[in-house]
Known about the structure:
alpha+beta; 21% strand
Amino acid sequence: xxDAVTSITLRALEGTPLADPNIRDLVVATxxxxxxxxxxxxxxxxxxxxxxxxxxxxxxxxxxxxxxxxRRVTDRWYxxxxxxxxxxxxxxxxxxxx
Length: 98
């Protein structure tokens, strides 16, 4: 067990995809699975239609990697299912110039 609980949040940039219980349940199950595979305790998971917040027994750097893996896996699944990104594509400075 690490010294502190770290919270991470993934937020959809558009819409409320996590309002669909099937999508939310898959994201929650994936988070728990990543935690189990990597020996990271998942203390709590909170979700609304747009975001999911996970409390991990891990340092910040581990939590960041956890979030990246959760985003990658769930976005790939959602993209295969719908053709769209679950979390959205972040804006780049190039987008601002256009």
